[in-house]
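[SOLVED] Need 3D model of a two-part complex

Original post:
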Amino acid sequence: MHMADALLSPAVGATFWAGTAGAIAYCSKKLKDNMEEKLIPLMGVLGAFIFAAQMINFTIPGTGSSGHLGGGMILTVILGPYAAFIVMASVLTVQALFFADGGLLALGCNIWNLGVYPCFIAYPLIYRPLARAGNTPRRILAASLISGVIGLQLGALSVVFQTLLSGRSELPFTTFILMMQPIHLGIGLVEGFVTAGVINFVLAARPEILESSLSARPFSANISVRKVFVGLLIAALLTGGVLSWFASANPDGLEWSIKKVFGKPELPEAGGGIAPALKAVQEKTAFLPDYTFKKTEGAGAGAEEGKKEEARPAVETGKSISGILGSVIVLAAVLLIGVVIRALRRKLA
Amino acid sequence: MFDEGYFNLGYLDALSYRNTFVHRLDPRAKLIATVAFIVTVVSFPKYEITGLLPFFLFPVLLFSLGDIPVKFILKKVLLVSAFALFIGIFNPLFDRQAAYSWWGLPIARGWISFLSIMLKFFLTITSALLLIATTSFPGICHALRKLGIPDIFISQLLFLYRYIFVLVEEAMKVVRARDMRSFGNRGKGMKTFISLAGTLFLRTVERAERIYQAMLSRGFSGALHAVKPYRVSGADVVFLCSTIVLLYLFRMHDVVGAIGGLSMRIF
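Solution:
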């Protein structure tokens, strides 16, 4: 489920980082304006709780495989969307750094996929309306199940789109969707059950925690549906705008995926303008007269084919041998540098 | 398995407090350099292999200069390779057009893009782990704060980090106690999990209340402050500049091809 750096293009990674950073800034501001200081240690320790609870595995009924908690919905119900988003973002950041789950560029996508959907879609649009009427265990179960499933489905869908837009993977859209969505339907159901279970447990043992956390954040009540939709619309427009801007500069990724998604090679209107300029800059800066290098090759072969895909020039044996030789030398040199430095350090120590 | 995961977390943390040239660099410089490195690596097109090879210089330098155990990091990288491997392995299946023919044996383009994904995966993940192994987590938080990330998020990261070790230990006690009372898979169902997690949750909330009271009695006023002062030195500037210049050179010029061509001419 965690998106990985290697499957991302810089444009997609940066776009989702921008969205995530915006969400973090927005939530921080909201919290700063309304928060009780008391919430600071609670948020921090609950983040650690998510980690700890993930270490307790359990068997999923009917399958025998073992699962663990995701935690996004529990946090949202207890802390409200803004604080929960910050906590989720911090948990994923620590996971990215210490467990290398995904990587730093993909962290933007991961926070988006696992934070934005449960906190700002599943919770205000599904959980709250369902659970508001009365906190009966059954209502909580229904609300958690539906919102857990929806949140994870959206997250999984995002992974598919992020991968396809980046154009590093060859998976066709339908195959990918058919693989991701059912798996995450199962995960979402389990997550919903566990979320409901823990919330009902807390409700039975110490109901004032849920009540006091509700009263400690009066602002959570006024998330309006319209606001959420307007926010999403702006995000969608921004994403579309940024991606299409990059798409004209970097045709291989987006065109490829659009071909896969819509069955047509190109969007009706591909915005030009910036692409030639960028290419000129690239050619100027990349010029090193002594050696043959890839940019000129690409331009030469690409001129005939258009800019449909990365040019693969006809392979000359000499070229491929020099490529292999160069690779071996570079790798050997790099390794040698490491070994020498290590030996020197040992000697000096 | 959980003991191991926990131990790793602590070990990585311990590594980050070593005192080498790399560790002494300013966290900001290292953070920016790592992000630049990752973006440069990822920016290579789908079928690039040779262009990625020179980038191995960076992890190798950090490993050797920072005195980081290679095996430990590689094991961690291997552990998380599942998703990239799982998605990447479809490339050879769907992209079968021959790209090269190797003495009559055709090599599909899918294999090339697969190899490219795996190289990128290795480089990006290793660099992220090396960042934390050479820069302490509080150091990274400090860098993020200086780079303009909101204070609330930084406090959150620091708090989370402070209490992970405490709560993970508590969770491990719970797991051990449950395992000792359950035979086979009995007692490991969702019902038990819910009561365990619920209890852990209640204890966590109570802990938060105690922490808050302790903080108040020590004069907490809403922000956490770093004790260790960080200052940008000449070494940081040199490090960052040379990294960026090298990244630029490696990205824009075919180093491998040039060296290969040169060596062909010599031999």
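Edit: Chain B has a mean pLDDT of 85.
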